[in-house]
């Protein structure tokens, strides 16, 4: 059982407020990913949950108990650090035993727990090695093993894949997902990589500038982003935002013509932001198409499909997913058609989503 | 790339024939000779009579002639001086390292009001020649009743050693990743345990440097014992050895034997610790 509840959490470093009131509930056995650009406060929030930094304002409860003043080791929380932070002078076994012994466990129990973690993470042949004799992926597994030995209710992972090379990253990502299921605890994972967030999370918390922008399942965030920040942060290549002028059913883009879309949300007249992902656009060569005029810049060929980058009449760069066999020479004039079901509408002033 | 190689090979002269490494070797060998010569002469002289020293100062001695060493051991207070030196130096170094490391850890890691000032305060000690303060120090020690006790020396040596130690250790501790301490905190280690089990093993190379840095001047110090210690039973080695230097005649052989014996422990310690010493000097250069 591990229910976390954050209420109005604020964090100030001297006079600078870096978290402006975080409200969040995390359920038992949930895999939650904090994602956001550098400096958005996601790692700070993780350190507050861990108890490594004091909370300036607000309340953090774990299973109904206020944790603000509880020292890190008494919270039932373990953490895997970005640099792994393995004790360099201890071998793998000692690294894992250090915390377990400090919990006051007897020798047999310590050994049993290490054996279990070592088996789960395939560390048995490495137990007598020092951290410097391990590869990056092995160090990563030791760091996770050290956290597991303490049998935490909540496991915190701070950008655990950022020090691994690309090939290893997807393997370890799978392992972490499997591990989360096997342990059956609550996992909180911090990353700046939206792909990691999308693939691992039950729920994603998107953060920006010390605030939560949106909380939801990967599907929610992708299909109904709450604002332009989430819309452009989730999904790759990113969603294009077009600053259009609405007149009835017509959406005019300066210098690129006008597109007619039925059943638009919001007021009949005015300016709004139209968001379209690469897969909701189609390129047409004929000028009569219901699309915005654009010029092809270049094409990224990826084998199973391709992305064509085109500049619209008003200067906005959009990427459009096309079939791998379609080819467009640079400087070809095209029209970009927009599928209504893939169109997102946001208020120009607030950036918030306009619902139909 | 290849042009540069040709250019390098085309050059003639010492640098061309020996190469840069060869030149460095020559300089290092010359340096070694210059540094070792006095020590070798000292050791040789320890096996000679005064007359032999004057006649053939650089000649190989008869190493079976151990009369000087026997004399030092049996007819002088050498052993007492040696024990005094070991006690004073050992206690001073232990205190300097213990206090200096703890102070440096606090300055480097804990954020508190005045941390910067305290570091500057320690560093200011580097610029202060303690010998200038000898008269007030003497009065202070007299009033404390510490004259003619080893504690007068230990107090001064600890004060002398702390600035460099805090300086070296603070710099070193700052290079260690703070995530290690966070990890230990998550593991449930107390601050004292973090210091002892995590930080101490990691700062050992820096402690060896700070230790050696302080060891040699304290072991060799002649000035403070001369002022503070009159009781022959409390004299340290450098001070005690001066008894062999008379106003009219000196027993040079015995003096050199004493010097050799007094230098030996430091040289041995240095050799034993040199690996750690070198590790410590280069660590931090490469991450």
UniProtKB/TrEMBL annotation, chain A:
<feature type="domain" description="ABC transporter">
    <location>
        <begin position="4"/>
        <end position="234"/>
    </location>
</feature>
<comment type="similarity">
    <text>Belongs to the ABC transporter superfamily.</text>
</comment>
<keyword id="KW-0813">Transport</keyword>
<dbReference type="Pfam" id="PF08402">
    <property type="entry name" value="TOBE_2"/>
</dbReference>
<dbReference type="InterPro" id="IPR017871">
    <property type="entry name" value="ABC_transporter-like_CS"/>
</dbReference>
<dbReference type="InterPro" id="IPR008995">
    <property type="entry name" value="Mo/tungstate-bd_C_term_dom"/>
</dbReference>
<dbReference type="InterPro" id="IPR047641">
    <property type="entry name" value="ABC_transpr_MalK/UgpC-like"/>
</dbReference>
<keyword id="KW-0547">Nucleotide-binding</keyword>
<dbReference type="InterPro" id="IPR015855">
    <property type="entry name" value="ABC_transpr_MalK-like"/>
</dbReference>
<dbReference type="InterPro" id="IPR013611">
    <property type="entry name" value="Transp-assoc_OB_typ2"/>
</dbReference>
<dbReference type="InterPro" id="IPR012340">
    <property type="entry name" value="NA-bd_OB-fold"/>
</dbReference>
<dbReference type="GO" id="GO:0055052">
    <property type="term" value="C:ATP-binding cassette (ABC) transporter complex, substrate-binding subunit-containing"/>
</dbReference>
<dbReference type="GO" id="GO:0016887">
    <property type="term" value="F:ATP hydrolysis activity"/>
</dbReference>
<dbReference type="Pfam" id="PF00005">
    <property type="entry name" value="ABC_tran"/>
</dbReference>
<dbReference type="InterPro" id="IPR003439">
    <property type="entry name" value="ABC_transporter-like_ATP-bd"/>
</dbReference>
<dbReference type="GO" id="GO:0140359">
    <property type="term" value="F:ABC-type transporter activity"/>
</dbReference>
<dbReference type="InterPro" id="IPR027417">
    <property type="entry name" value="P-loop_NTPase"/>
</dbReference>
<dbReference type="InterPro" id="IPR003593">
    <property type="entry name" value="AAA+_ATPase"/>
</dbReference>
<keyword id="KW-0067">ATP-binding</keyword>
<protein>
    <submittedName>
        <fullName>Sn-glycerol-3-phosphate ABC transporter ATP-binding protein UgpC</fullName>
    </submittedName>
</protein>
<dbReference type="GO" id="GO:0008643">
    <property type="term" value="P:carbohydrate transport"/>
</dbReference>
<dbReference type="GO" id="GO:0005524">
    <property type="term" value="F:ATP binding"/>
</dbReference>
Automatic annotation (TrEMBL), chain B:
<keyword id="KW-1003">Cell membrane</keyword>
<feature type="domain" description="ABC transmembrane type-1">
    <location>
        <begin position="82"/>
        <end position="273"/>
    </location>
</feature>
<feature type="transmembrane region" description="Helical">
    <location>
        <begin position="151"/>
        <end position="173"/>
    </location>
</feature>
<keyword id="KW-1133">Transmembrane helix</keyword>
<feature type="transmembrane region" description="Helical">
    <location>
        <begin position="117"/>
        <end position="139"/>
    </location>
</feature>
<feature type="transmembrane region" description="Helical">
    <location>
        <begin position="252"/>
        <end position="273"/>
    </location>
</feature>
<keyword id="KW-0813">Transport</keyword>
<dbReference type="Pfam" id="PF00528">
    <property type="entry name" value="BPD_transp_1"/>
</dbReference>
<comment type="similarity">
    <text>Belongs to the binding-protein-dependent transport system permease family.</text>
</comment>
<dbReference type="GO" id="GO:0005886">
    <property type="term" value="C:plasma membrane"/>
</dbReference>
<keyword id="KW-0812">Transmembrane</keyword>
<dbReference type="GO" id="GO:0055085">
    <property type="term" value="P:transmembrane transport"/>
</dbReference>
<feature type="transmembrane region" description="Helical">
    <location>
        <begin position="81"/>
        <end position="105"/>
    </location>
</feature>
<dbReference type="InterPro" id="IPR000515">
    <property type="entry name" value="MetI-like"/>
</dbReference>
<protein>
    <submittedName>
        <fullName>Carbohydrate ABC transporter permease</fullName>
    </submittedName>
</protein>
<feature type="transmembrane region" description="Helical">
    <location>
        <begin position="22"/>
        <end position="47"/>
    </location>
</feature>
<keyword id="KW-0472">Membrane</keyword>
<dbReference type="InterPro" id="IPR035906">
    <property type="entry name" value="MetI-like_sf"/>
</dbReference>
């Amino acid at each position: 059982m591990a229910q976390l509840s954050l209420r109005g959490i604020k964090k100030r470093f001297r006079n600078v407020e870096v978290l402006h009131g975080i409200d969040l509930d995390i359920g038992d056995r949930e895999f939650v990913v904090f994602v956001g650009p550098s400096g958005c406060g996601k790692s700070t929030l993780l350190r507050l949950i861990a108890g490594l930094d004091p909370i300036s304002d607000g309340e953090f409860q774990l299973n109904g108990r206020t944790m603000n003043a509880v020292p890190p080791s008494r919270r039932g929380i373990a953490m895997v650090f970005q640099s792994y932070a393995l004790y360099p002078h201890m071998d793998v076994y000692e690294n894992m035993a250090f915390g377990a012994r400090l919990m006051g466990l007897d020798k047999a129990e310590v050994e049993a727990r290490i054996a279990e973690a070592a088996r789960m993470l395939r560390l048995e042949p490495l137990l007598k090695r020092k951290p410097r004799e391990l590869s990056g992926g092995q160090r990563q597994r030791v760091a996770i093993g050290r956290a597991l030995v303490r049998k935490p209710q909540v496991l915190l992972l701070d950008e655990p894949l950022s020090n691994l090379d690309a090939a290893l990253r997807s393997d370890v990502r799978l392992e972490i997902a499997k591990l989360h299921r096997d342990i059956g605890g609550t996992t909180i994972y911090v990353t700046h990589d939206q792909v990691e967030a999308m693939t691992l999370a039950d729920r994603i918390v998107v953060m920006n500038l010390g605030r939560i922008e949106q909380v939801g399942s990967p599907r929610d965030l992708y299909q109904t982003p709450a604002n332009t920040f989430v819309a452009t942060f989730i999904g790759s290549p990113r969603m294009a935002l077009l600053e259009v002028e609405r007149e009835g059913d017509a959406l005019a883009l300066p210098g690129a013509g006008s597109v007619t879309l039925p059943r638009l949300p919001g007021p009949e007249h005015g300016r709004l932001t139209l968001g379209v992902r690469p897969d909701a656009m189609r390129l047409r060569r004929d000028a009569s198409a219901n699309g915005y005029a654009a010029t092809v810049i270049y094409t990224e060929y990826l084998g199973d499909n391709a992305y064509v980058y085109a500049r619209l009449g008003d200067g906005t760069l959009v990427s459009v997913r096309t079939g791998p066999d379609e080819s467009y020479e640079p400087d070809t004039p095209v029209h970009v058609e927009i599928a209504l079901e893939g169109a997102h509408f946001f208020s120009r002033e607030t950036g918030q989503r306009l619902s139909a | 790339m290849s042009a540069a190689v040709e250019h390098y090979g085309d050059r003639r002269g010492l640098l061309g024939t020996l190469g840069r490494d060869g030149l460095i070797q020559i300089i290092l060998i010359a340096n070694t000779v210059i540094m070792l010569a006095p020590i070798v002469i000292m050791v040789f002289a320890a096996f000679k009579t005064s007359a032999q020293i004057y006649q053939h100062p650089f000649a190989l001695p008869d190493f079976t002639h151990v009369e000087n060493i026997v004399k030092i051991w049996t007819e002088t207070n050498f052993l007492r001086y040696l024990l005094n030196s070991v006690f004073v130096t050992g206690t001073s170094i232990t205190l300097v390292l213990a206090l200096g490391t703890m102070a440096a850890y606090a300055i480097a890691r804990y954020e508190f009001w005045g941390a910067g000032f305290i570091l500057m305060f320690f560093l200011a000690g580097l610029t202060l020649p303690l010998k200038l303060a000898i008269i007030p120090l003497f009065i202070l020690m007299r009033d404390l009743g510490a004259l003619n006790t080893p504690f007068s020396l230990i107090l001064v040596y600890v004060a002398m050693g702390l600035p460099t130690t805090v300086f070296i250790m603070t710099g070193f501790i700052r290079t260690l990743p703070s995530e290690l301490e966070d990890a230990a905190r998550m593991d449930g280690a107390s601050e004292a345990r973090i210091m002892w089990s995590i930080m101490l093993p990691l700062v050992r190379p820096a402690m060896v440097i700070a230790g050696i840095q302080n060891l040699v001047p304290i072991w060799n110090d002649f000035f403070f014992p001369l002022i503070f210690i009159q009781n022959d039973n409390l004299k340290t080695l450098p001070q005690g050895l001066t008894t062999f230097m008379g106003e009219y005649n000196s027993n040079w052989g015995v003096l050199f034997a004493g010097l050799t014996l007094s230098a030996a422990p430091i040289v041995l310690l240095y050799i034993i610790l040199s690996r750690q010493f070198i590790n410590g000097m280069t660590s931090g250069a490469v991450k």
